[in-house]
Amino acid sequence: MGMRNVKSSKFKSHANNIALPHTIFSLPFALASAFMAAGGHPDFWTVILILLAITSARWAAIAIDNLADLKYDKLQPRLSYRAMVRGEISKGEALIFIMLCLIVLVLTVAQLPPICLKLLPVAAIPFIIYPFTKRFTAWCHLFLGVAIAMAPAGAWVALTEKISLPMIILCLAVALWIGAFDAVYGAQDEHFDKAHKLHSLATKYGAAGALNIARVLHVISIVCFIIVGLILGLGKFYFIGVMIAALALIYQHAIVRPNDYREVTQAYFMRNGIVSIAIFIFTWLSYD
Fold first, then answer.
1. Is the N or C terminus of the chain more exposed, i.e. has fewer CB atoms within 10 Å?
2. Which DSSP letter does residue 260 get?
3. What DSSP designation does 263 have?
4. Is residue 154 within 8 Å of residue 118, measured between CB atoms?
5. DSSP conformational letter for 248
6. Distance between CA atoms of 33 and 283, rounded to whole angstroms?
């Protein structure tokens, strides 16, 4: 019984370390991309492989990020709940977890068309370097956006074996969506980041400036989603999904102020999943 409790506790710690519920941000976009790429009828087993590859990549990326930022996270009271900060996972355990995820990623991608394995290094670069970009650029948020956008890109290439304009615009929409959201979420750390010589849009332009930039990026993101639908000739349901996503973003911006982050909670974070879920469900319905 004791060993079982230890294993259960360790599982929970790793789930905490990779922010397991946040998987919702990338998988729905990958599924939406799969439906778009396949004209509404993606191969089932290919989709399973895509989801496994994206999930293992995301888990590795989050673990790398937490490992790279551990010395800063330990000084940030807001992040005291994280497993590595609390000492529930050692650096060695984190490295082993990362290696296992990367092995699963490579083995899974190897089952997809050859072009996927050839492009894997390109897709992996953004999530490997993102944790370190906050050391030198205020636009680090966009590197995170590009890393997340590799999910729909990978799904598209796995099903079509090519890179096309709709895929590029879809990935741009996703990158701007998550990048802008990360800028909003990071604005609350303006003073902490300045004190520790870290970079963000808030440290460069102030919290108010960062929020304004995020609003503009989100508008461009929604426009890109609309353009994708027009290029692919998707039905009315798709555009209903885009409208729901836009309304969710408008609400999220409405409840945040440069000097008031009381609403920027885990609930706030998870509500952004409405965007990806709405895009996926209504993309699916547009083909049904």
1. N
2. B
3. T
4. no
5. H
6. 9
The alpha carbon of 24 is separated from its chain's Cα centroid by a whole number of angstroms, namely 8
- Note the pLDDT tens digit of each residue in 53-102: 999 998 888 888 888 888 988 888 877 877 788 888 888 988 999 999 99
Q: What is the pTM of this model?
A: 0.90
Per the prediction, the chain carries an average pLDDT of 88
Which tokens go with 222?
């929604």
Q: Which among 246, 91, 170, 126 is positioned nearest to 99, based on CA atoms? A: 91
Read off the tokens for 79: 């992040």
The closest of 267, 221, 232 to 22, measured between CA atoms, is 267
Which of 254, 245, 240 is closest to 222 using CA atoms?
245
- Say if residues 169 and 228 touch (Cβ distance below 8 Å): yes
Plot region of 87 (φ>0 → left; ψ -120 to 50 → alpha; else → beta): left
- Whole-angstrom CA distances from 131 to 96, 167, 199 are 18, 25, 11
Query: What's the chain's length in residues?
Result: 288
